[in-house]
């Protein structure tokens, strides 16, 4: 026992000595090792934060970054987008990606920062409904290209008026600064931006998370865009625009006081041109009028006429606390740009080619007190809706006249949930997303869908906001904020109700057809028996009976056609009713 204790004690002193040694060494070593590093170096080591990981995911993310930039740029410049995406296979897991748009392009002065400097761009400092936010998309791709191939990217930019320029571009990761090579002015009527970059360690697959599916969904949610895709197999796939309507040009919004933080107040107060705190708040915040200022003055213990640059942290804190007690008008929603019910419908009809579509654009709502958002739903049923499996077509054919088959929903297709944030498809992290969770939480049996996993449905959900609450930097899933989940649930249920009415009308129509077939089958036998009893000619009786059945069913078919049409017409009429569900 005594020996044991002795040994433990000596171990302790050894340990203590070791620790002292380590401490001394670490402190000294640390002093020598102390270095700064740039944002670019940080992201170089953490490419997964940009969604750049996984061979298939990386290639899709690259296409996503370039295409969303093109769409953002075209929309802001009021141009109907035409985007060409080409992927060439240069070797095993080695590809060349080319994206060309007809947008405003970039200038000699901005191109370097835009594509060769991380955290630089035109969107981060504005509250605006766009797909990009942080200024790490395109430049993240430049970084990945040079990290995996050692090569710079190639760029051409032009305004379409005979002047364009071309250059090669890389990032200096140590300084997070662009490096430009081989800059050339070219006399070409090139309009827009073309980016060409090589990547190794990525893989092209035509799967549900591959670039082709990404572009198909982009086309669905952007019916005003023409998208041309040339795959590594040499195929050319064109998604034509189904409308020439140009979405409203996105407007930057002012922050709503309910979403502001102390740090926001301090930072904005330093930058403002206003002379007084009151005029600063009125000019920089949404819904901040004279009444709100009067109310605020009653709640804070300093004069709101003071210079905003002299505002202390404590005073800013009192402002934020007072904001919580003031009833502000809900944030302005004019910065939200929905696609619109008609356009979603047309788009789904053209690209998904279902049997029936119903769509819904809900009025704007607010989450977390200060962020306006809006939800759009489309449900496509039958035809080519859902994820088609190999046997789908055959089963659909053999089930075409079988009401029981509709009941069983077994048309061989699986449900497809298409998620979008500000019209950009979300293909990854489905399990983490409020949209997927809400779709699965709905009691679909109420809407005539027995097994959601096994039904020819494409459920389209577009979440739009000037501030999308993504769950991570990969920007692939919407966070489940209470107000968002509640609104999604309501919107999906309202749309599902319309679909369910179509399904039941269709079921009734098929039942009538089955009835007619049975009638016709027994007419000869009945005519035979009647002829024996009445001594009338059998042929004559058959004609009469057929006439009777046909006459009765003609009425039925007309009524059914009317009923199905009515379902279509009534869509949108009973929204308020459904709201009570
Ligand atoms: N195709 C394009 N046309 C015009 N400008 C572009 C294009 N692509 C990128 N840009 C500019 O480059 C900036 C940086 O792009 P990016 O790194 O993807 O960040 P973000 O899109 O988040 O702002 C954008 O803010 C935009 O100003
Ligand atoms: Mg971007």
What does this structure look like?
Residues 571-581 have low confidence and may be disordered. The chain has 17 helices and 16 strands. Helix 4 crosses helix 5 (137-149), helix 6 packs antiparallel against helix 11 and helix 14 runs parallel beside helix 15. It has 581 residues and is of the alpha+beta class.
Indicate the CATH class of the largest domain. Alpha Beta
Bound molecules: adenosine-5'-diphosphate, magnesium ion
What do we call the CATH topology of the largest domain?
Heat Shock Protein 90
What is the arithmetic mean of pLDDT? 87
| Named CATH architecture of the largest domain | 2-Layer Sandwich
Give the DSSP E fraction (strand runs of 2 or more residues).
15-25%
The helix/strand class is alpha+beta
Rough outline: globular
What's the arrangement of strands in the largest beta sheet? 5-4-3-6-2-1-7-8
Indicate the radius of gyration in whole angstroms.
Answer: 32 Å
- Could you give the count of β-strands? 16
Count of folded domains: 4
Q: Could you name the CATH homologous superfamily of the largest domain?
A: Histidine kinase-like ATPase, C-terminal domain
Helix content: 40-55%
Q: How far apart, in Å, are the first and last alpha carbons?
A: 75 Å
How many individual helices? 17
Main sheet specs: 8 strands, mixed
Report low-confidence residues grouped into runs of 5 or more.
Answer: 571-581
């Amino acid at each position: 026992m005594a020996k044991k204790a002795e040994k433990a004690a000596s171990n302790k002193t050894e340990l203590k000595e070791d620790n002292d040694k380590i401490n001394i060494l670490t402190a000294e070593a640390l002093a020598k090792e102390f270095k700064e590093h740039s944002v670019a170096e940080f992201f170089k080591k953490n490419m997964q934060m940009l969604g750049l990981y996984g061979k298939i995911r990386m290639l899709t993310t690259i296409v996503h970054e370039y295409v969303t930039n093109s769409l953002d740029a075209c929309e802001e410049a009021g141009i109907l987008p035409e985007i060409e995406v080409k992927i060439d296979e240069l070797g095993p897991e080695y590809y060349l990606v080319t994206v060309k748009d007809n947008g405003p392009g970039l200038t000699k002065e901005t191109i370097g920062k835009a594509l060769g400097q991380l955290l630089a761009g035109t969107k981060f400092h504005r509250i605006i409904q766009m797909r990009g936010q942080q200024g790490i998309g395109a430049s993240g791709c430049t970084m990945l290209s040079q990290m995996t191939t050692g090569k710079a990217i190639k760029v051409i930019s032009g305004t379409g008026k005979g002047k364009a320029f071309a250059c090669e571009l890389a990032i200096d990761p140590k300084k997070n600064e662009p490096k430009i090579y081989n800059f050339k002015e070219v006399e070409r009527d090139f309009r827009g931006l073309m980016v060409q970059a090589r990547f190794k360690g990525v893989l092209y697959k035509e799967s549900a998370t591959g670039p082709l599916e990404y572009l198909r969904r982009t086309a669905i949610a952007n019916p005003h865009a023409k998208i041309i895709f040339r795959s590594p197999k040499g195929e050319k796939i064109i998604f034509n625009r189904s409308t020439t309507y140009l979405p409203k040009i996105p407007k930057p919004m002012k922050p709503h006081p309910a979403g502001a933080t102390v740090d926001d107040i301090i930072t904005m107060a330093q930058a403002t041109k206003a002379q007084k705190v009151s005029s600063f708040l009125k000019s920089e915040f949404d819904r901040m009028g004279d009444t709100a200022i009067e109310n605020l003055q009653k709640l804070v213990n300093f004069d709101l006429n003071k210079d905003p640059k002299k505002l202390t942290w404590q005073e800013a804190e009192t402002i934020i606390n007072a904001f919580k007690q003031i009833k502000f008008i809900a944030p302005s929603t004019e910065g939200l740009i929905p696609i619109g019910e008609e356009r979603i419908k047309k788009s789904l009809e053209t690209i998904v080619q279902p049997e029936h579509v119903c769509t819904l654009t809900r009025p704007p709502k607010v989450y977390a007190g200060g962020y306006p958002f809006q939800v759009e739903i489309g449900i496509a049923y039958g035809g080519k809706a859902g994820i088609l499996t190999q046997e789908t077509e055959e089963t659909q054919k053999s089930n075409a006249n079988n009401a029981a088959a509709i009941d069983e929903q077994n048309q061989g297709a699986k449900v497809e949930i298409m998620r979008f944030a500000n019209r950009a498809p979300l293909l990854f992290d489905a399990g983490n997303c409020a949209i997927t969770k809400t779709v699965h939480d709905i009691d679909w049996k109420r809407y005539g869908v027995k097994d959601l996993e096994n039904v020819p449905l494409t459920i389209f959900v577009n979440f739009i906001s000037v501030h999308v609450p993504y769950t991570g930097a990969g920007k692939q899933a919407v966070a489940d904020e209470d107000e968002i989940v509640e609104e999604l649930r309501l919107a999906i249920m309202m749309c599902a109700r319309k679909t369910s009415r179509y399904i039941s009308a269709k079921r009734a129509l098929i039942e009538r057809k089955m009835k007619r077939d049975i009638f016709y089958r027994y007419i000869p036998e009945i005519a035979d028996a009647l002829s024996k009893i009445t001594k009338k000619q059998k042929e004559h009786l058959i004609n009469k009976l057929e006439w009777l059945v046909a006459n009765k069913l003609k009425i039925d078919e007309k009524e059914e056609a009317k009923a199905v049409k009515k379902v279509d017409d009534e869509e949108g009429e009973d929204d308020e009713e459904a709201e009570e569900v």
